[in-house]
Design a protein that fits this description.
about 100 residues, mainly alpha, 2 domains, two-stranded antiparallel ribbon, about 60% helix
């Protein structure tokens, strides 16, 4: 955690942060490690194969749900309720696919 020593005379005060005192910056030490690990997984042979497959398998389904069926946001809040709502949307999508 970094704390600025004096923000009073700074020309960017107000544009830089909105707090009344000095600016405090928190740094997540694990974030860099996690980003590097994700990058390595995405650049691996298996990661490249999965990314190439994604545009054919997953993206059209989300596009259909969002554009053709006007799903923009969840009506319920909370992880469990959102999972149930998404499950119902997925069931409806599968029924539409089987019916066509």
């Amino acid at each position: 955690m970094y704390n600025a020593s004096n923000c009073v005379r700074c020309p960017l005060n107000g544009a830089c942060h909105k707090s009344k005192g000095n600016r405090i910056i928190q740094v997540n030490v694990n974030l860099g490690r996690q980003k590097q690990q994700a990058d390595q997984l995405l650049r691996s042979d298996e990661g490249i194969k999965k990314r190439k497959k994604r545009c054919f398998d997953v993206e059209p389904v989300f596009g259909n749900i969002k554009h053709n069926h006007s799903f923009r946001r969840f009506m319920l809040r909370g992880r469990q309720k959102v999972e149930i709502e998404w499950g119902l949307i997925a069931i409806a999508q599968n029924i539409r696919k089987k019916a066509a």
